[in-house]
Amino acid sequence: MQDKTVIGVYVPESEPGDKPIYMRKQGMNKGTYIMVGATDQVCTEGELVRFLQKKHARPYDETVLPQTSLSDIDPKAIQEYRKLRKKKTPHASELDYSDEDLLNALHCVDIIDGVPKPTVAGLILFGTDAVLRRYFSMMRFDYVRVKGRDWGGSRDESSYYSIELRESLLTLLPKAEAAIMDDIERELSFPPGRLTREENPVIPYDVIREILVNAVMHRDYQTPSPTLVIRFTDRIEFHNPGYSLKPIDKIGTPGSTARNQTIASVLNETEYAENKGSGIAKVQRKMVEAQLPPPMFDSSKTENTFVVTLSLHQLMDETALRWLNQFHDFGLSGDEARILVYAKQYGSVSNENCRNLTSYDTAKSSSLLTRLRSMGILNQHSHGSATYYTIPENYLESEPENSLVTQIRTQDTQMQNEQNSQSGSGSESDEREILLQSLPQTLQKEILSLGQRMTPEKREEMLLKVCRIHPFTAAEVGLLFGNTRHWAKIVLRELVHSNKICLTIPDKPKSKNQAYYVLRDAGQRNISEWK
């Protein structure tokens, strides 16, 4: 580098049995350091305890509590395990075991002086309410509903309510899921060919289930604090004791690291959880499919906490599109537009946020942020690995224009993937051919003869002709005209606002099942015949 020799030194991590390694003169309590980001920090008492436990190679959830007995195990929890296990593997051999043999096979009891004693995992998974209150009184599940966007923003007690659950995990999980899902809004739709409506939660059920199960499975049960879920107006936050054992930038990649091996194993056998590291990748995919921002992860070793934030609002809504009008001269891509909207909504954006939003790697995310900074649209705040970017005040203060038109190039591969997933198999050309066949031949030829660019007048004329035949979704319109769903939504909304095109679901304008049509003259078929 610059004609000079560079020496790289790799120091492998010590084995668990060799830790903690400390400065002899300072002693173990003051001379043990851990890496937190790019800094060395003195080990906390809790960290030292964990090092010493790993030194003896016995996970905390396998620890035996001598004062407990099999009478502290709840038969209903064992029954729930048998039911879930049979559903996943009907002929599993352990289903024929007695309750005591089953607990022993699951490593949930240990034999001490010939007497079976429950382990921490056994009590957390199968314990009675009484034993959990006695030994794990603070290890609850708390759900809090807040009216507003800020914690403690109002002193009015009616502005929030809470639910506290303290029971064995196998009976707690269904109740915790129900508490969260009951507060999530539903979108109503009438699928083609069906007489009954469908209710789909704004955040997919699989997302809530996966995040919740990960919370109770990977939390630090040595820390006396609850798993806390807070439902704000615009988001849901999952606060969990226990930092992530997997680096934040590796979350969602293959492979799993379990803090509580026995608990993780039992939940895996009941199909509540998987142990391949694919759960978070599934969450990220489901959020994108629901047109929501990907989940945000925050892990702190110093505070020993892990937080997951799920947004309840679509990133690219009408307000965001109006705000983006001021950047039309910059020729932004769809990914760049999303980064700006994210930075505006959340106050800042980092490389990690960029990776979550775009699925780019670190280098490509850095290039995207650098480009936006070079254009003066983002300000950089350098803090090493904690560098973040904000939007300049002059752009934040800009009032949205009335027009919904935004001339942003939408190079949006995620939207194209969404089209593919909605239409099943087959190439885009095949899908377009099917859509064309639903139109009169004269209109087919007219569409195929269109050039790359259309005047606004010609575009409006063609859209009205197409939507007069029968209702089309934005994805279908984009495919017909060789463009994206994002482009179609913008131009169709213009026509909706000018009362030239109608919505099939007028009370839910942002519904993912929304379609657009032109109201027909008297005597012709109307929208009720197309539903």
Task: Label the overall shape.
Answer: globular
Name given to the CATH architecture of the largest domain: 2-Layer Sandwich
Mean pLDDT: 82
**Residue runs with pLDDT of under 50 for 5 or more positions:** 401-426, 522-531
Largest sheet: number of strands, sense, barrel closure: 6 strands, mixed
Number of domains: 5
The total strand number stands at 18
Structural description of this entry:
- The protein is of the alpha+beta class.
- The chain folds into five domains: 16-57, no CATH class; 62-135, no CATH class; 141-311, Heat Shock Protein 90; 318-396, Winged helix-like DNA-binding domain superfamily/Winged helix DNA-binding domain (Arc Repressor Mutant, subunit A, Orthogonal Bundle), CATH 1.10.10; 418-529, no CATH class.
- 39% of the residues lie in helices and 14% in strands.
- It contains 21 helices and 18 strands.
- It has helices at residues 27-31, 45-55, 75-88, 99-105, 120-126, 129-135, 169-181, 205-218, 261-269, 279-289, 318-324, 334-346, 351-358, 362-374, 393-396, 413-423, 428-437, 441-448, 456-469, 474-480, 485-497; strands spanning 33-36, 39-42, 109-112, 115-118, 141-146, 160-165, 186-189, 198-201, 227-231, 235-241, 296-300, 305-311, 349-350, 379-381, 388-390, 472-473, 502-503, 515-517.
- The strands form six sheets. A six-stranded mixed sheet has the order 6-5-9-10-12-11, covered by helices on one side. The chain has a three-stranded antiparallel sheet with strand order 13-15-14.
- Helix 7 (169-181) packs antiparallel against helix 8 (205-218) and helix 20 crosses helix 21.
- The N and C termini lie far apart (67 Å).
